[in-house]
Structures are given as C-alpha cells and as structure tokens.
Specification:
Layout (H helix, E strand, L loop, with lengths): L2 E5 L25 H11 L3 E5 L5 H13 L3 E6 L8 H9 L4 E4 L18 H9 L3 E4 L6 H10 L5 E3 L13 H11 L4 E5 L2 H4 L9 H11 L4 E3 L12 H11 L5 H13 L4
Parallel strand pairs: 1-2, 2-3, 3-4, 4-5, 5-6, 6-7, 7-8
Helix pairs in contact: 3-4, 5-6, 6-8
Length: 272
C-alpha cells in the first residue's frame, strides 16, 4: 500500500485570523478531499494521513468527519491542549474514534522553544501511550535539543519529526542540523517524515533537497522514514506528482515499500 503520511485540508471560512495569509495565493482557498483525490489516483497513492493545521478542537472534529466520509483518509493527527488539566480525558475521548492516530501540538509557533521539555506533559503523554497514539513534532532545528530531552523522558511514545525539522536549505546550512538530527536518530522511538523539504528550499533548485533527504534516510533508515506530500502547502514550491517523483528518485528502489507506505502503516497503526 502506498501512503501519503502528511497532508492537510482546510476551509477559509473556518480560519479567520489564521494562516495562510491572502498573499499566498497558491494556497489561499479551500482544499478538501475532492481536490486531492484525483492527484492520489494519478500517482497511485492508496491512502493518506490527514494532519491538523489549527489549535482548535473544532478542526480535529472537522478532520474526523472527513475521515468518516472518505475511505482514503486512513488516519488523522489531531490537536488538543496537552497541558490542560483534563488533557488525559480529552485524549481518551479523541482516541475513541478509530481513525484518530496521533496528536500534534504546533510547537513551531510557540514563544517558548522549550515548551515540550516539561514534566507537566506527563499525564497527557501517558494517556497517548495508553491509547497507542503517535506524537507529531512540528518544529524548527532550534527545537531539536528540547525534543531529544522530551523523547528520552517518554521512551514508550512514538514520535515523528515533521518535515525533517524544516532544515535551513535555502540558507545552505547543514552541519548543525545534521548533528542534532543524528542525536535524535539514535533514539529508537524517533521517526522522521520525508516531507516539506521542497518548500524549505525556497529559491534554490529542487536538487538542493537531495543531501538533506539522503541524510534523513542515512540517519533513520527506511523503517523509520515516512514519505509525505505536505499538500496543499506543497503548492508554494511545486506539484504533487513532481515531488513524489523526486523522492522516488532519491530513495533507493529497495526502500520504496517502506518509505512510501509500510513505515507509515506501522507507525500510525493504519488499516486499509
């Protein structure tokens, strides 16, 4: 089975005051299942993981409703306030839906880079582990050191780094990012998404992505790397077919089954 492990849907009417701004014309409109399904069919993608984009319970409810209506949505990564007093109860309620597979706090937008490195998260994380949910880490390279401490505190929690922590490809910086990623890759509960890199390349040619993608594969190995489109954000830098083709060229053929499907199915406990 071929799986897109990271995509989004949204309706602008639900996003007043939220990203994206109107000047990002390529993605400033509604994106729903009917927009993505032809791309999936054309690229031979069997299913997807739908990931949250707002810190709102209503957004998670919207995604779960779409998952009920569209069989190709195999799993949903939602949001809830992990530091709320009733976080464990909220997680248990969300986990009752069979397609709720993970939780994602939007760490990249928080003012405190060390928010994740806090023992106060303990009850929420214990609830996630108890309900076999995964944790998506939406971060920048500056968060990696904090994520490493968090991961060591919770070795039973499956964690995936979204978009390879958004490395500074456009600036050509590599060494510090690789060093911190290697520290995380040494932890067996850490996974990484091969997604979002084309957007981080900015005005650089698509070829600039290759050393970062190859580093992800080298550090984590195919059994801990998940391919994702990051559509429709991908539209800011390229198109679905081209990004998939680029990644298929970068990933050795012997690793295709894992990176483009099997690892996502295992990590998110997906069922076809």
């Amino acid at each position: 089975m071929r799986v897109d492990a990271h995509q989004h849907f949204w309706r602008l009417a639900d996003r007043e005051g939220e990203w994206p701004p109107a000047e990002l014309g390529a993605i400033y409109r509604d994106f729903e299942p009917a927009d993505l399904k032809p791309l999936l069919d054309g690229c031979g993608i069997d299913g997807t993981v739908l990931v949250q984009t707002m810190e709102r319970e209503a957004d998670t409810a919207y995604m779960l409703r779409l998952a009920d209506e569209n069989p190709f949505i195999l799993g949903v990564v939602g949001w809830t306030d992990l530091k709320a007093p009733d976080a464990a109860e909220a997680i248990a309620s969300l986990a009752a839906h069979p397609k709720l597979k993970g939780i994602r706090p939007m760490l990249q937008g928080l003012t405190d880079d060390g928010w994740i490195d806090d023992p106060a998260l303990g009850p929420a994380i214990a609830a996630m582990v108890a309900h076999d949910l995964a944790f998506d880490a939406l971060i920048f390279p500056r968060h990696l050191v904090h994520l490493a401490r968090f991961a060591r505190r919770h070795p039973d929690l499956r964690i995936v780094i979204d978009h390879a922590a958004k490395p500074p490809i456009a600036d050509g910086r590599f060494v510090d990012w690789r060093t911190d990623m290697a520290e995380l890759a040494a932890l067996p509960n850490l996974f990484c998404k091969l997604s979002g890199l084309l957007t981080e390349a900015g005005d650089q040619k698509p070829a600039a992505v290759r050393p970062y993608a190859e580093t992800v594969l080298e550090l984590f190995g195919p059994s801990r790397v998940l391919w994702g489109s990051d559509w429709p954000v991908l539209r800011l830098a390229g198109d679905y077919h081209s990004w998939l083709a680029q990644c298929r060229d970068i990933v050795p053929p012997a690793q295709h089954d894992a990176v483009f499907g099997d690892t996502a199915c295992s990590f998110y406990r997906l069922k076809g």
